Amino acid sequence: MRERADRIDYALAVALAVLTVLSRLPYRARMLYNWDAVQFALALHEYDVVKHQPHPPGYILYVALGRLVYGWTGDAAGAYVLLAVAFSGAGTFVVYLLARAIYDRPTALTAAALLAVSPLFWFYGTVGLTYAGEALMASIVAYFAFRALRGSETDAWLAAGYLGLAGGLRQSLLVLLFPLWLVSVVVGVRRPRVVVIGGAILTLAVLVWFVPMIWLTGGLERYLDASRDLADTVVKPTSILGGPLEVTLRMSRYLLESVLVALGPLAVAALLLPWYVRRHGWGRREWLLLVWTVPPVLVYTLVHFGQAGYVLTFLPALVILLARVLLAALAGVAERAPRAPARAALAAAAVTLIVVANGVFFVSARPLPRDFDTSKSAWRQAAEDEAFDWIFSRTAAALREHEEVMATFVAAIQGLYPPEDTVIITELGNARSYPWLRHAMFYLPGYTIYELRVGEVSLGYYAPHRSSAMTPLADSEVDLPAGVKRLVWFVDHWSPATERPPDLAEIEIPHGRYLYVLPLGNKPVSYAGYTLIRAR
Fold first, then answer.
1. Which of 115, 198, 395, 469 pairs with 159 at a CA distance of 20 to 30 A?
2. Helix (H) or strand (E) holding 461
């Protein structure tokens, strides 16, 4: 039987957790990072899944934790960022103990250190989203699942309870980690009674948060309607059942690119897996990590992969396995070294090199500015877009630039145009712009805002001040307030697919962005298939 963790291990795990927390603080986000982050912030004041505050499936325990921290900080962005920082520190701690239980102390130290400096894990430990918490909860479930795999009934039930609670933080974890729990219990404990009791514990843990969530949403039917609507508009078009094969292949690329960013140079160790299996075999420990990894990979490839943070569901499993492979390979290389310190020095040098490479990438890398004017082949344009969106955009430098862009938009609009006679237009479907609706709602609360669906999507607009649900009106006629004097487009760049209205003014602001301003007269404005009419 493997040696259990002792005081030295707990001291090392705590030290790495503290270093993880300290490494996040200088780079933490000051503003709400993306659309989802704003929706979590809006939920602090009014929890309503139908309004996407937050979006389905609800994340109620995450919002509850956010409210606790918000009561202390008074800052929505800061509250969720502090949660992410705490989650990432705790995640490093748990991964150390998990790797220690599965393998040994050198593997635990290497895996926890390399996870802490993973550019993707580092990034999502600095922004107000659920993904650092997802890595933490997945690692906790895996820790107790491994102990269940060794025959512990108590740990099988603990894994079930933590899995149920993890679903309240992020509901997808219930589906993605259930195979890990079930296989561990069936193979390790081999008693149907344990599976039945574990299923009951899992169900009770889910009901703890599911019942309040349904009550706050206004009933099960209202909740299911909102969930179906999101599934039909966001998930179904990317799934293998509802979307073309090209979409599935594209999601596979996004997933692979995100994994490579998350692992950094450690990804090279994957090439040594065949050698590792021949030399050391493939036992229950490796099967556990594989069962942890495969279900999320299949779901993200065949159903939906929304952003790079999804990778954190199974990233700890990959880091633990590849850390083990790396150390085994280095031990093989160092077998000729006459002294143990030389072998340890080789391993330390390799790990240090990965730490430095990941640190430099996270701190300094950022996407190149978009070039929309140069004519390019389709493959080159796709490569540049993917580099911008999936490889270089989750770093400290990219985050700072993103926040400066947001702050510039908000300051320019507030400084130039009063809210009582200005309407803000955001766009969904503009390939040259982020959909800024939620940021406009949060950071420009006094303004009337409309989101227009443009491009290849069907016509329809969303008016937050008129809506009790996150559902666009299927109408091309937009009624504007009577006192409005101008329309201001909150978009990064004008879409070439839409013709500019006459008299549209283009105002350059910092960071290569523009404000597009249209003074309103008495006549209706025709734009992108819409007719915008000012009330009289």
1. 115
2. strand 461-462
